[in-house]
Amino acid sequence: MLRVALTGGVGSGKSTAAVMLRECGAYLSQSDEVGRALMQPGGAAFTAIVQQFGAGVVRADGALDRAALARIAFDEGRVEELNSIVHPLVIAEQARWAAEIAAKDPLAVAVVESALVFETKHAASAEETAPWRTRFDRIVVVTAPEEVRRWRYIQRVSGAEEAAAAADFDRRNAAQWSDERKAAMADFVIENDDSLQELREEVQTLWEELQKESAERAEKAM
User: Fold this and answer.
1) Residue 147 lies in a domain
2) Most buried residue, 14, 28, 66, 91, by most Cβ within 10 Å?
């Protein structure tokens, strides 16, 4: 099996690329979805978050107020506090998921989509220089010019004022590595600054490469 990380800056289109890979045949775990499930009432992260950030991050219906939590985390400089709770749980869940896939499908390409593959300090490894290399065999980075990413993010945040959405983009963007820094660490780079069709073609080419490598690894393991 081939373990692949798919990452990119906010608004880069990494989620779109991830879904395209799933349509090609890849197994896909999206870190935001995994984290969201863990943060539901009764989830592994819920109680720890409320204890750390207070009852003000809980809505009247008992669920986490993710918008309020994000404001506190970013505005008060507490992002790492939140990450220290959520990231280890997400990583552990994705490791379990990958192990299940490997057991049933040796030819699988298992893709983890995550915004913070490089940035997280909570990978399950003692290796300091490149902990992501213990989790993944290949790293794919999706890039786009910052002004394009900002525009995409503003369009995506429905119901928000443009100025507020732009400020939110800037906060999130500042917490991530630059495209250039990520690309320097990547095995594959997808430049997503054109049409959806061009992105699809790039993803298809990438899929063929990943599928070929997974098959070669499985053959060597026999």
Assistant:
1) yes
2) 14
